[in-house]
Amino acid sequence: MIRHVIVFVFLTIVFGLGFSNLAFGQGTMSSGGVDVEGTWYLGEGLKVGDYFEYALCELDLNDCAPITLKFWIAGEVTNVSEQLWDTKVVVVDGNKIIKGSMGLGKVSPEPVLFDDDLFEYAIAFKSSLSWLGAFATSQEGDLIHGPKAFSSPAWGKIGAIGGAQLIPIYTETIVTPLGVDDTVVVGWYSGDVNKIWILDDFPFPLKALTYAWVTTGIAPIQVQYTLLDYQENVTEDPFKDVVETITKEEMLGCPTVYYEYVSKSVATDTFSMGVQYNYSPRYPMEGCDIDWKINFKKKFDPKNFVDQVHYDIWVQAEDGSIVRSFAEEQGRTELYNGFGQVHLLLPVKEKPGIVKYLIWVHGTGPEYQTPDPEDAGFVTVEIEIVENPLLKELNDDVVPPAAIPEWIKNTAGWWAEGAIGDSDFVQGLQFLIKEGIMKITS
After folding, report:
1. How many domains in the chain?
2. CA angle at residue 100 from 48 to 425, to 5 degrees?
3. 256 and 360 in contact (C-beta within 8 Å)?
């Protein structure tokens, strides 16, 4: 597979060893350090044959929708003059299974090389480790980036989140797949208490819960993960029998990289707030996705975002009735975003033609409370949906009617009506491809 060599733009880090008192709940978060001997660094004890499985969510990966990340250290690989850990990876993302490889750094085991299909997951994986990889690495003798003592009052200052100190806070005994373990909790305060649970001599944290930095409102979760499984001395590829799913995007020739966004800033019909929307592609195809980036802005201060937004995306019929709710398709009554910036993929289930999508704001307020209706309103976005030639192959004038089983026709109809999900629809397409009824051209 084609691999990317990625040069990441690291979070701005201002290193320092000064001490400070920071707000910590109702009290203060003073200089740290715990009564535990020894040091730790990211990747400590990592070796060939190690197998890990994590439940992971990251804010920029589908608004922290959880995935399962499995990886196995198969050996070593050379990148120019650098030796990396050759890491086999499987990601379970909803009804998708993605299989590939990463090259993890030796100084800090963060993704350096990875397959194209793993791009967004590699970024999320790196984000989950960046707080530690910036401070605690295997560089012995480096006072700033080397191994860090648990008893140290501070591991460094994180400039990107207001100058907070990354410190060992306290010890905690927790139950993990490894057993009952005595961990050290390191963290910082920025909008909320950020915590990472570390076990001496174990290469990655056992779990973490960190929050995005916001100036107002409730801070959304930035990264959350938990160790689900760990095995040593795995000599055979644990993923050799894992089969990647054929995604809807592959089957229907849908774009997977989005650019040339259509952008506009308008006020809601009630002038309750401004909505800056961006979508791509300009002419989405039926059966594919629309990539939406939506920013909710304060009406008298458009440079600042509205937080705690209860919203939805609806489809409006010609008679003005609402025929589709994206939230309901997720099994929810409404969608929620804590900091006013939304990024989502909306499947196109509408037929070719002009479609009215409504960005509907129910109001604002805490997630599990009734929103303030004074902030309610909507914005109408008209988008031209174009015909998908691969979907057209399902029509009777292209494929003989007798060749398509009745259940396939029913499945296609139910999917178009929103009665079933993408996974059921994809299974029908996979059947047609397997039987040679439907052919996918490159």
Report:
1. 3
2. 145
3. no
